[in-house]
Amino acid sequence: MVLCVSAWMAGALRAQDPPQPPQGQMQGPPPGGMRGGSPERRAAMLQKQLGLTDDVTAQVKTIFTAGTAKMEALRADTSMDPDARRTQMMAIHTDEVAKVKTLLTPDQQTKYAEIEARPRGRGPGGPPPDGAGPPPPPQQ
């Protein structure tokens, strides 16, 4: 009897929780800005992947911090048309990429272009390389 009541209570408590988005689907932008998190985390990731010096990493972090501030200001402007906001956000990102490239060696620029070209859909690796995803839901 105690087990039945416990199971019933657990089910009732779970029913009160708001529904969570499916795994891998976020609502809204990631914390700290787009494309991978905080400026610190993004700069550290590039330092590791591209072998950046501490000086270049600090400059990259400054670029990402400025871009994040601009992105957050755009997100806060609720009067702006969503398409115009998206266009401006893409321009901010393009500007970040161009500024970062000026700090890199030719080899690092090539690797950075590869990193930027990766799909951003399903976790760190993006969608499966063959394009296969989960099967479509059954038709009713």
Provide the descriptors you would attach to this structure in a database record:
single chain; 59% helix; mainly alpha; 140 residues; 5 helices; 0% strand
What's the quick description here?
This protein has 140 residues and is an all-alpha fold. The chain is built from 5 helices and no strands.
Topology record:
Elements: H1 2-16, H2 39-50, H3 54-76, H4 82-101, H5 106-117
Which spans of ≥5 residues are poorly predicted at pLDDT below 50? 20-34, 124-131
The pLDDT mean sits at 76
Report the sheet with the most strands, covering strand number, pairing sense and barrel closure.
none
- What's the total number of strands? 0
Compute the number of helices. 5
Describe this structure as you would to a colleague:
There is one protein chain. The chain is an all-alpha fold and 140 residues long. The protein has a domain at 36-109. 59% of the residues lie in helices and 0% in strands. The protein contains 5 helices and no strands. It has helices at residues 2-16, 39-50, 54-76, 82-101, 106-117. The longest helix has 23 residues, at 54-76. The protein is globular. The relative contact order is 0.08.
